[in-house]
Phosphoribosylpyrophosphate synthetase
Amino acid sequence: MQDKEEERALVNVERKLTEDGFTSDFNVQDGRLCVIGSETNKTYGPEEVTIVDFYRFEGESNPDDMSILYAIETADGIRGTISNAFGTYADADVDDFLRKVEDLGKNLDKAHK
């Protein structure tokens, strides 16, 4: 049986999300969500994205070294993840995009199994 800390380790959460179908990697460019490595070059606005779940992680040696992993689904069904530092080291573009998604009133649905 895994202890809680091991269960919450980033690599374990990523593995579980992959098993649940969150297989794409996202980033934000020019205010739009992009699928990394996609051949279609399709991008998504905040209104086309739902945050399905998110996980916060603290660094082992420094509690200020925090990151957040978001499980995301696009309007056309692409599921994947995007991560960002928390606080001072956050990527402002990712932070702004995800805030807009949240501001549009997207519901957090943890039933992604």
About this structure: The beta strands are 24-29, 32-35, 43-44, 49-58, 66-74, 79-85. The first strand starts at residue 24 and ends at 29. Residues 4-101 form one domain. The chain has a mean pLDDT of 84.
